[in-house]
Design a protein that fits this description.
single chain; 136 residues; mainly alpha
Length: 136
């Protein structure tokens, strides 16, 4: 369905234009508008088949190519932005888990250090006792 068809099928009452009646997020609206522009571009390209010499491009066709490149660039930007938001959300949601894991690792490292110090001190005391016993 093209944009003109969608607008023709819309209710004409004043309340139908209220933003509360449209249950669409800003991202959803952007997606819809971009898709509609791509569809309209495809339809325009299909209708604009004229006779030209091979390799010759008229201004209208060039404008359509530039517009298509802009729409594709916008779609790439939107996909990148969606990915960044997803990563940021994941980091924020996982922050508590990551902090807990870091704290557990630090506690384990401290325990290993204490154990190592205790073992070294215990070995020194044992060696001193052996030396004293040999002297007797």
């Amino acid at each position: 369905m093209t944009f003109p068809e969608m607008t023709a099928n819309r209710k004409t009452t004043q309340d139908s234009d209220s933003p509360d009646n449209y249950n669409m997020s800003e991202e959803g609206l952007e997606e819809l508008l971009l898709r509609l522009q791509m569809e309209e571009l495809d339809q325009t390209k299909a209708r604009s088949t004229g006779k030209r010499r091979e390799g010759e491009v008229n201004d209208f066709d060039l404008a359509l190519e530039i517009f298509q490149a802009e729409l594709e660039s916008l779609q790439t930007f939107r996909n990148d932005r969606r990915m960044v938001k997803s990563v940021a959300t994941a980091l924020m949601e996982d922050n508590a888990v990551i902090t807990t894991l870091i704290n557990q690792e630090e506690a384990a490292r401290n325990d290993r250090n204490i154990d190592s110090q205790f073992s070294n001190n215990h070995k020194d005391v044992a060696q001193e006792k052996q030396i004293q016993l040999r002297k007797l």
